[in-house]
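G., the chain you wanted modeled:
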Amino acid sequence: MSAQQSVRLRLFSLNCWGIRYLSRHCSQRYQMIAELLDREQHDIALLQEVWSEKDYLYLKRTLATSHPFTHYFRSGVIGSGLAVFSKHRIQDALLYQYSLNGYPYMIHHGDWFGGKAVGLVILNVCGMRAHIYVTHLHAEYCRMNDSYLPHRTVQAWELLNFIRHTSADADLVILGGDLNMHPQDLGMRLLRTHSGLRDCYTETDTFDGCEDGITLIADNTFTKKKDLLPFEKGIRIDYILMKGSNSVCVKCESMSTTKGSVPDKPFPYSDHESLTSQLLVQHTEGMDRTRERHTDSSNTGAPVRELVEVVSEARGVVKEGFRQTERLQLMAMCLLAVGLAFLLLPATTLPWLSHHSHCVVSYSLLGLLGALGLAMVAAGALLYVLFTAQLKALRGTEASMKLASANLQERDRGCLTDEGGDEDEAGMLPSTPPHPPRGDARPQQPTPLDCEE
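Predicted structure as tokens:
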């Protein structure tokens, strides 16, 4: 991309709530979503909860003209539900499945079966290398007693590290999806501070949508009001985040959300509101592109002490998750022991019964106890394996966080120095040029969404 060139990109993100036979009006809503994408002509559409491959193939056929390039990420039992539709050619794709994702016995939640993951597609946009990420993190079912907080924290840590280690040669980085976290939740602070990604909602010049940018609103007919408690108006858990590079500057010119009802339609697109952002991507004159390719990915622009504090807080949550999982592992061992006892009971009782025919204990009762014991042994063994794997994932994440925290503390003490470049006030090399917050810059007139000289 030349020094005088600029690109405008329109991005779309939506949790489609596409659970066949369970989500209401699923087929009709997919038709509405396809009509919307075909009409609005977004450059890139990031979709979540497209659980059925049949629905993905329907969207692919319908959008073949407007979005000829597409990729569907498959993982888990029923799939990740992640799909990308693009006007720009997809050069490569990669999927990373999170190591922790709930529990298989929590069938009514279903997150474990979904194989939650982050998908990456690499696009060439007018000579610019764009890394586009789409993800869906574990849901928060009870904010007052969130047993999944350690899992979501681990997912946020794995997400930011996946982005950091795969975007070193990117000119533009974009993340969209249902993160299932409020803006000031631990996972979001961890993601923003350590990846350098910026929230389009807080930095956009103009915004048109739901109050406070909320994406799960009480006015949506599909939303269960009890799921929003204690937030009566709704919550913001869907995001589009962005980051440029040393040679590319990116800013959000405008952003909008749907507002529940759809004009001339009987129901909304989904139980979530969709997000649309228009980004202005410009080459930064006078920058050395060689330096951009070798930028230290740990330089995110955030103060080092803030980075350390967030990691320390996350380590505390992961350690608590480790203790909870140890208790669950102990319960699995107890279940296994009781099951073995039930299995041994018939084996030790039958010889005795053969010499005491007057005993009223029936063989059918012993058979029932044996079957129950076998079931308990199988369940206990499977749960023990599950919790052991989760303990290893938690321990591994905590060790990674400890290593990162130690490295950051060394930098804070001045033991590590940056090589070249101007430092900001926090002693960090800025990852992207500064941008004014939403409302500080004058709105610009929209222009065609292709390369401009």
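The radius of gyration is 26 Å.

Shout if anything looks off.
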